[in-house]
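User: Assemble these into one structure.

Assistant: Restating your components, then the assembled model:
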Amino acid sequence: MRKYLTVYKMGLAGAFEYRASFFFAFIGSVIPLLGMSFLWVRVYAGGNTIAGFTLSQLLTYTVVSRIVFSLVATGIEFEVADEIRNGQLAKYLMRPYSYFGHWLATVAARKSVYLLATILPIGVLAFISRTYPSAPSVSSLLAFIASVFLALLLSLTFSFILGISALWVVESTSLFFLADVAANFLGGAFVPFEVFPASVQRLMHLLPFKYLAYIPLSMYLGRLQSAAALWALAGEAAWVAGLMLMSSYLWRRGLRRYTVEGG
Amino acid sequence: MSTSSYLRVFRRFVTLSLTREMNYRVNFLVVFLDAVLFFVVNVAVFSALYLHTAEVSGWTREQMLLLLGTDQVITSVSFALFMDNLSRIPTYVRDGSLDLILSKPVPSLFYVSLARLNLPSLANLPLALFLSAWAALRIGIDFTPANVFLYLLTLALGLGLQFAIWLTVMTLAIWLVNVSDIHELFLSTMTLTKYPEQVFSGVSKVLFTYVVPIVLIANTPAKALLNRLNFPSLAEVSLVTVAWVMVAVAFWRRALSHYTSAGG
């Protein structure tokens, strides 16, 4: 455990260097929401309602889902694939901790800084300007936090699996962008599932991407409560466990193929 | 340089970019798939919105898709032309390769704007044209030489305006050295061009129609095809575009006169 704490501390120092970039990247991910939000305002101005969402809930969904998605997205698939291709991976194989554990600690460090660099200022701004997005109840908030935490693990494991696909496929980087767009859409990062036709919703509910935005947001807005919320958390934990097992299996298989030329 | 030599150099830029791209042929396919997926997602989200309302600020579903298609046409072309060029200006400044560019016989602005084309971005273009044409036919627009010409003209104006704003943002690099963050902000702001101008109000309206008029980029050609563009607004958009281009070019020149090499 101490080893990983050290990796975490190193990660903190590294991430802290980029705190301004985190902030800009965050602002950059929030700007596109303006258009969608303005659109919703106009739709509601015409006296429409959507799947029982009030305008304020829908705007909350639009903004908070983006925050959640950017918080749980790790982007480590690019770095993992790079380290496999350029031989850096060999360095980690000789260290006394697991490669997955290394990323777990590093991502934990980055996300700590991310929280400080982005969510704290937003919280302060929201407090000063007295605009709270539809305040959830305490139990909703707890379920929300738990599900965001699990979503981070889910997304980290998913990214790790994508990254180690470089052990088999030479050029996989471009596929990562594809996976990102798909995860955004299928995760409900743009609009809640309820906006889509029932058949599309059924498909979205079958896939694990829903945990990256839609499920946490449903908890935040109090649309998913008590037993249903607990079941959702259990399902999320099961997906995390399943993906972790799969990643460790693939990792062991993949390593057998791994060769480094030169040194 | 004469027009014909500009064309000759541009052809060379195309050949070189194509050669570079051929090293990563798989990339073409993936970028194409990426474009298709992105496109489908956009169309899906907008269409889903219209399951719940008949119109938004006077725009029906087909009109909105025409705007989306038009926006993608401009985005596709401008990304192909400028994405790997204007975004590199900070790099040119940082690593001193701007020195090399300045010593070339080609005008530096021409070189930094067009030398490295991102041809896979064009993968999006057929889809975008198809969506625009499909939406236009559904609306029942009669294609006449006049409105097709007006559409192409306003597309060109939109492209020019986007170029000018982009160049201005990247020219800041000459002073600020690290503006990669600002470039990210620029790109995410550009995602707002696909929305109807009517949805913006208050501060955002002033900001995006007057201060940094990105809303005009795609709305103007869409309005032209929808027969909603009168002469005064066409004249206004033309003037705004010409003014932005002139200011952007003047700003670039001024930046160059302040540029002192990073060594190398």
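Chain B touches chain A through 37 residues (CB under 8 Å).
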